[in-house]
Design brief:
The structure is a homotetramer.
Chain A: H1 2-26, H2 33-39, H3 44-50, H4 54-83, H5 89-106, H6 108-117, H7 120-123, E1 127-128, E2 134-135, H8 136-146, H9 154-175, H10 181-199, H11 203-209
Antiparallel strand pairs in A: 1-2
Chain A binds a DNA duplex through α1 and α3.
Chain lengths: 210, 210, 210, 210
DNA sequence: GATGAATGAGCGTTCATTCAT
DNA sequence: AATGAATGAACGCTCATTCAT
């Protein structure tokens, strides 16, 4: 029956939660498997029924947390878009960026965990449930489609935006260096808007691609 | 006499070199203190006469390596500037950026080591010998002084450029994702030029600050 | 009904087969109970319904495999004896020995398993189905009865032959040391014939025992 | 100075002694490294400064113990030979065999340890200090040289004798099966004498080889 | 009877750290 | 100052055994 499957899922979940807590509290390298298990109220051996090692659990967590952040942001965006008729790609992306900054502000440990462990490979594969599990690049594609502008090198563009967002927030939110987050925000958004413009196709190219 | 001081420096140096080799070859977590000592042809116990633990050595190394990279770049810039009369800040910064990218391309292990361990605190304190040990922010200040343009929020501007450079190079050089470095280069430089423009003071502000 | 008994026997059998495979493939110490069960397509817990531990299974296997070897040899001997009128004890024993050597040559892993785990207690109790489950010593008694010679200390004689056979074949077949099996064979048979002669009663003793 | 080397030798020795005790008391498989260390009054980690694992220690022990047994026997033989003018090869070998049987009788655990772990490769390489570290096959060669008889296939002959000795003593001394050791002794010696005769070259061959 | 999730003792191994030399 | 033998805590991991289902 499904009860046993349910219990297993709960155990896996408990291990994830336990690991997340310890990873953010004391770092991955300083967290041992037996601690993860004990913190999840299990025997050490039980850990190995569900994960190969702590790096497997880390990878699961990174993917999940990045997913949550992006889904949260995307969800808010969708709600907002329902109220607005005019849809502007740039604004949407800026909206996502601001939302993500807010999430990072709320949970600096999350930022720390994500920033140090998220690779582009994982990020570009994040799936959004609201969009039939299409991945995060599809989200941008969809947004860009509704626009009357055309963009070249879309993946590179997104990559640069994401990396700039992540990298600049890290020191600013965690160590308030070299400025406070509120001070960074405006210029970060400006920079991102410039990146978007930089990848916009010229009118000639726009026509060609049309 | 200074001979004893010399010997001490040599030992410290040998440990740094040994550690750098092992850190880049197999990673910091996988390198043990006894390995560092053995590789430096010393007894394990001697290590503790010079460093507290391997993280102290790591921090020394990060600062030194970042310094070398920046000094290299700056040195090349100075040589070039001696041949040229016209001095343009933007071009200088782009020159530094390109030079640093080239150094990363030459030594991806260096990039890996630096990118994962360099914090803004360390970076902004890098000292340049050619400039009487003034730090790296002073370098930019000097460059910006020679320009006829005025910039606001200089440290933030540099911060954003440095982080963008580091963060985007990481995946691209080490994992060729999402594009090749040659593909990234042009757009990265464009983006940095835009960041510079974004921080340029308007003419009114220029006058005011003058 | 006997169906339940049948199923039980089948399970026990499946575990034996599974264990034999793993024991010979990777050794007893390196084989775990859960592997034996999985290889027999059962759950781990089921193992304990049939055997106490892997050593119980090993003992069952040693007895069975030794039995098979001896039964095989004995079966061939009987077939041969039906065609021959003249029956000579020495020749019969040599025939058995040669047959067993051939079986070992065919399956060195079997030799390895048997040689390291067979004790005299187990061997002397091997039962032969063709002979109404009489044990292996009875076989020799029967053979010796048909002879016109008399032997003293029959069990000791058999013991020495069996141990010499086992012990000398081990290194020779498994590691080809110090000679090849073909080189050993002739002298081993000679030695066994000498052992048989050595235990023959003198004519006076023969008469006495008659 | 040599003091430190001395201490190291003492530690290695202490580990060997400790391991031997535990191996014979409870078997190799049932002995753990931490037990060996604790029994030798050391920390667990110290074990690894001297041996790779318990199998390395086992191999050292087997070689050493086999060496001791053989050297003991050989030493007694030499003492005896000094008193006797007439030297007979057969008698010498029988003397060695009897001496070894006596050693096994005195220490059944030694027999158990040796019999289960001594391979022909190790045995044939045993070195005798009294003979300038020449190995055990050289001993036999020397003995055989003094004889007026010639033997073919000397290594095979020794192999068969050694294996017969080992294999038959095992059950008899440890489990008193199928007879007592005193009962085995006479027939074992007879059998060995027969093996020696069997490998004697015929008179024709003797002349040829001369 | 059969299952397999859960346990936790115990393994081999590593390694930062100490300290007598 | 320099050594490296010694330590023992802590690690990752395995596995026989139990027991609720």
């Amino acid at each position: 029956m499904g009860k046993i499957e349910d219990k297993k899922k709960q155990k896996k979940e408990a291990l994830l939660v336990s690991a997340m807590q310890l990873f953010t509290e004391k770092g991955i390298a300083e967290t041992s498997i037996s601690e993860i298990a004990k913190n999840a109220k299990m025997a050490k051996g039980t850990f190995y029924l569900y994960y190969k090692d702590k790096y497997e659990i880390r990878d699961h967590l990174v993917a999940r947390k990045a997913n949550e952040i992006f889904e949260n942001a995307h969800h808010c965006l969708r709600e907002k878009l329902q109220k607005v008729t005019e849809k502007n790609v740039e604004d949407c992306i800026i909206y996502l960026v601001e939302n993500i900054i807010d999430q990072f502000k709320e949970s600096p440990v999350l930022l720390k965990f994500i920033a140090k462990n998220l690779s582009w490979g994982v990020f570009s594969n994040i799936r959004i449930r609201d969009l039939d599990n299409r991945n995060c690049m599809d989200v941008f594609d969809e947004l860009l489609q509704y626009s009357d502008k055309r963009y070249r090198q879309k993946e590179l563009m997104i990559y640069m935006i994401v990396e700039l967002l992540n990298a600049t927030c890290y020191n600013v939110i965690l160590y308030h260096m070299p400025v406070e987050i509120e001070r960074l925000k405006d210029d970060l958004i400006l920079a991102i808007q410039n990146i978007l413009k930089q990848f916009e196709c010229s009118e000639v190219e726009q026509l060609e691609s049309a």
